């Protein structure tokens, strides 16, 4: 977040790829039985009906992120359970449905949804358009059974190591006012199960240009709409030239942008990325008129999100603790993309923010930052590590961080890059084992005073340590 007179601009990056890289267990198609759900839009209300495939004491939601800043569950503010005796509760890291009287939850459950656009920690939010249209993440209704609330509370927020005997919820989507919109195409009815994307219910203008399908809120100020429509395909072309083809589904990406209105004395943009899809959410008076600072942040945001088509989807991390690989890496890729696009762009100022934030947040282990709600640590310290990798790459081959990522893609054709893979590549690129050890220290333990540790990590980049602050030269 940064400030200037009368305006606050926040960049909600927490949701960006913590969810899409590796949130929840990987389940193969044709796997175990699964519950069913039907989502129907009726005017401004959305009706959700479940048909569970088995008896269970608890049905928990995979996507149970908290609202940003307030760190409270979002479902109680938007969902109203209609089925008598069924209650929406919170246990540990998860929202869940339980039977108030005890025993199994009824197999048929009805819920009324009044959607709101709120920022979430490390997860995909609902997008509410100014004309009443709503875009929902495909996995927002997906549930899994648990024997008790105590068992649910004991689960970590990362389900990758948990074996479940249930498949992803099969969801049928309908809109009484007309076809639904999915992947830029209108469909009378849609069924999703394994997909991770958004479904739009309601009217929306769809435009296609140069491989980009744009679904932009008709009330979003034109200057910002034009910025988004031009920048997204141009940024994608730049990455493809250096990194090669993106992951399947990202050849013709979709940009979906919602507008929450001109709230006074503030301006915010947030969003995330999914296979072939960038979603953005705008709000505030500061976006109504053209503004160079806001425009730059929007361009940076697109560059960060588009980078995830390669670093985050073509290769992804396995566990949430490894989010620094893709988030920090996408930050540095975005900086390099903007500098290539505009030589006047102040890359040093952006990178200095990364350094400052890493030092501020690395007093505790970066690996567990998500548990503390400090997701920014993944971005900032990941960018610091990426800078060190770039310095090694430059010393070894004369290349930059884009070259380092291209090698990451080549080495990890199985689609997964973990900490061992990353550090092995770092050493192979000429990185110092001592620097690698300092990075691991911040990841696993943190440091009472992170500044000298960060300074040592970035010694090859060129820094000075002055009054406890590491300053990029």
Structure description:
The chain is of the alpha+beta class and about 475 residues long. The protein contains 12 helices and 24 strands. Strands 1-2-21-22-20-19-18 form a 7-stranded mixed β-sheet, with helices on one face. The protein has a 6-stranded mixed β-sheet with strand order 6-9-4-3-13-16. Strands 10-11-17-14-15 form a 5-stranded antiparallel β-sheet, with no helix packed on it. Helix 8 packs across helix 9 (about 400-410) and helix 11 packs antiparallel against helix 12. The model is unreliable at about 1-30 (pLDDT under 50).
Return the average pLDDT rounded to an integer.
89
Main beta sheet, described? 7 strands, mixed
Structural class: alpha+beta
Distance between the termini: 23 Å
Task: Give a quick summary of the entry.
This protein has helices at residues 18-22, 75-78, 149-154, 222-243, 292-307, 323-341, 347-361, 376-397, 401-411, 419-428, 433-444, 450-457, and strands at 2-4, 7-12, 36-42, 45-51, 58-61, 79-81, 86-91, 94-99, 108-113, 127-128, 134-137, 143-146, 170-175, 180-182, 185-187, 190-192, 198-201, 206-209, 212-216, 254-259, 267-274, 277-284, 463-466, 469-472.
